[in-house]
Amino acid sequence: MVRKCLFPAAGYGTRFLPATKAMPKEMMPILDKPLIQYGVEESLAAGMQQIAIVTGRSKRAIEDHFDISYELEHQISGTSKENKLAGIRHLIDHCTFSYTRQMEMKGLGHAILTGETLIGDEPFGVILADDLCVGNPEPVMSQMLRLYKKQPACIIAIEEVPLSEVHKYGVIDGEELEEGVYKVNGMIEKPSAEEAPGNLAIIGRYILLPEVFNTLRETRPGKGGELQITDALHTLAKQEKVLALKFSGMRYDCGSVHGFVDATNYFFALYRQS
What we know:
Blueprint: E1 4-8, E2 29-30, E3 33-34, H1 35-45, E4 50-55, H2 60-65, H3 70-76, H4 86-94, E5 96-101, H5 108-114, H6 116-119, E6 124-127, E7 131-135, H7 140-150, E8 154-160, E9 170-178, E10 181-189, E11 200-208, H8 212-217, H9 229-237, E12 242-246, E13 249-253, H10 257-273
């Protein structure tokens, strides 16, 4: 039902300078695997095999990663290191990858709108690679797709955050329809604790209907002078077309040093157990 997943990957990664001066933040590794590979694995697990990536300047490493390296593979063929490429080769063999460039950084909404040429007129997932999610018992995008199959609508992933941190997120105003599922009445981008309608924050996982593109075109720049996906979804929520899922699992904000270290420690603990 949902075949495509969009990865906005054109941002500068300024929270990780100077590491991201020449390296895409999406290629920063958690152990031996870059962040964006975790996201593509989550997409494929949900059956979204057509991967659409919005890139920008200095992002060629992403395209090279999801491609065959004949010289490297020939060099390690028949050695103990050959199996280290099994995971990425599985993605290359089972997914298709397409790319377009976002010429100017005008916000997440603008990045998603830039991806329209790769998506077309069909529902699609969106994964922000620096939000590294560990779903339980299944990946977060798979949880969202299960809800979409029951109730086709725009679906956003949410989690509870302290009120002192709501200014970092989009926050929903919603009513719970069943355990963990909310009808979204509205949302606000990066409110103060006093402005926030609650503490249910939007994280980097979406399933969107294609009509979001027209809504984005009609949306004026919002917070920070950028085109916000939150503002477009607020409009669609007024038409009762948006649901929110409080997912089961953990999410690490790998765009921040603390979240990146926490994710590394979590996956290292798993590595030591294997």
